[in-house]
Amino acid sequence: MTTMTMGAGDPRGPKPKRMTASRIGVYAFLIISALFFLTPLWVMLVTSFKTMDEVRQGFLFNWPANFTFDPWIKAWDTACTGRYCDGLKPGFWNSVKITLLSVPVSIVVAMINGYALSFWRYKGSELLFSVLVFGAFVPYQVVIYPLIIGMSKVGLFATLPGIVIVHTIFGMPILTLLYRNYFAALPSELFKAGRVDGAGFWGIFFRIMLPMSVPVSIVAVILQTTGIWNDFLFGLVFAGRENMPMTVQLNNIVQTTTGIREYNVNMAATILTAAVPLVVYFVSGKWFVRGIAAGAVKG
Questions:
Q1: Are 101 and 240 found together in one domain?
Q2: DSSP 3-state helix, strand, coil percentages of the chain (rounded to 5)?
């Protein structure tokens, strides 16, 4: 009976016995990078719990002496976003509506495109795929004006369906690339077996490909949710006054010039706006990495 050496079954490999100069350099770089990105978050967090009198004293990094939730309450409920003083609350619900409608539509369209371009290739499919990939690298600002004209002609400009369509269009190239690469990495025998059993386009899609696409679908959901929630440009141009997302409301709060500029309220509003993407990342970060890895190796 053979004995297993310590650490042989550990996928991370054996733990190093001594600290080398290279490891010290790696740890130093990681610590400096973490401090670089976390310092602004710390400043925003502590400032959001301070009174304005304390903010005016400077001392950006100090913990608040008089801890208060008033800036958070005001940012959510009563902060002025131009003529209206309803806080971020309307923008939050608008962002929820836009995200919940845009994410499923864009993912379903991209999933079907990726599936069709992987297993049901037709004449000109490679050209179409190249055009879709090219669309992922076209700057958004270049096509905004033609989109405004076109959507105005069909009555979709400044409407909820209009902003959903825009997010679907601009999410389709990268998501189609993601799904195509994932489906192309699956064994072709699965597709051939489905064809032998008499399944057609939709039969193979729903019975074979859809159940196997869970890992990459999690990646797509995370990408689209964070991208749509953080979007400012499309929300400002295409959403309309009744559907302005949270990012646009945040800009209106921060850029308001009447009265006193309340930095504690601005910081609280910024953290509230960024809360949803942060929660999505922390909750599903490991699935995101697994989904990326699942489509990175050809089976």
A1: yes
A2: 70, 0, 30
For the beta carbon of residue 92, count every other beta carbon within 10 angstroms: 18
**Rg of the chain (C-alpha set):** 25
> Which tokens hold the place of 95?
């962002």
Verdict on whether the full-model pTM lies above 0.85: no
Contacts of 14 (CB under 8 A, 6+ apart): 6, 7, 8
Number of domains in the chain: 2
- Say which residues have a Cβ less than 8 Å from residue 129's Cβ, sequence separation at least 6: 117, 176, 180
Dig out the tokens for 56 from the structure.
């005016």
Q: Does one domain contain both 101 and 64?
A: no
Show the tokens assigned to 117. 């371009």
Give residue-wise pLDDT tens across range 93-121. 999 999 999 999 999 999 998 888 888 77
Residue in 92, 107, 118 with CA at minimum distance from that of residue 223: 107
- The Cα–Cα gap between 208 and 188 comes to 12
Beta strands in 102-217 (DSSP E): none
